Amino acid sequence: MEELTQYLNQILDWHTKLGSPLAKYLLPGLSKSEIRKKVAALPFAMPDEFIELYTWRNGTPARDPNWVSFIEYHRFLSLDEALDVFQMTYPITKQFYEKTDWIMTFEDGSGDGYGISAVEEVNPITPIVFLFEGEGVNVVSESLTQMMRTMVASFEAGVFKMGKDGDLETDFIGLGEIAHKLNPDIYFWTRYVSYSGFH
Questions:
Q1: pLDDT surpassing 50 at residue 71
Q2: How far is C-alpha 60 from the geometric centre of its chain's CA atoms?
Q3: Which of 1, 148, 173, 198 has a CA 20 to 30 Å removed from the CA of 72?
Q4: 199 lies in a domain?
Q5: Are 139 and 185 in contact (CB under 8 A)?
Q6: Count of alpha carbons within 13 angstroms of residue 42, beta-carbon side
Q7: How many separate helices (H) and strands (E) can be counted in the chain?
Q8: How far apart are CA 184 and CA 8, in angstroms?
Q9: Using CA atoms, how far apart are residues 145 and 122, in angstroms rounded to an integer?
Q10: CATH of the domain at 68
Q11: Does residue 122 fall inside a structural domain?
């Protein structure tokens, strides 16, 4: 079992421990051939971590009124939904942002969220970017594996708790401190912890 899958399983375990219903909403993973067929039309290649994520689970159903956050307030998009979002937003992204070649996989309901970057020839491991209104598109992790390692550490530290509405609540100050500690070379988190008004 790959390291990324181990972290994803730990996150799901934490949801269950906290009383989250996430497990019943997650869709079964896809085969590698299914995923590769669906992403074949993209104008860039996606990394192995992207394939591994969607072989683990295929996100949660679109527009379900009872949707549950996977991390923070972000829902795990199914592959078809992630590709639909990409097709709708790519022209706008290319017009307004420097970083354009990525697929949003965790979305907060308002259009902001985390995305997995495309493969570059010299580096098969690709960074995770975060689109946040007013802040543009910023690198927040060197890889999806490292991002999920950070989220597991955040669960362990009590950053995430179940709210009265049945969804995750996030201590964003605590999240920033852990993310900065585990990702000291990522400028986004350096700025995050020094600028308390960011969230």
A1: yes
A2: 13
A3: 1
A4: no
A5: no
A6: 25
A7: 8, 7
A8: 22
A9: 19
A10: 3.40.1580.10
A11: yes
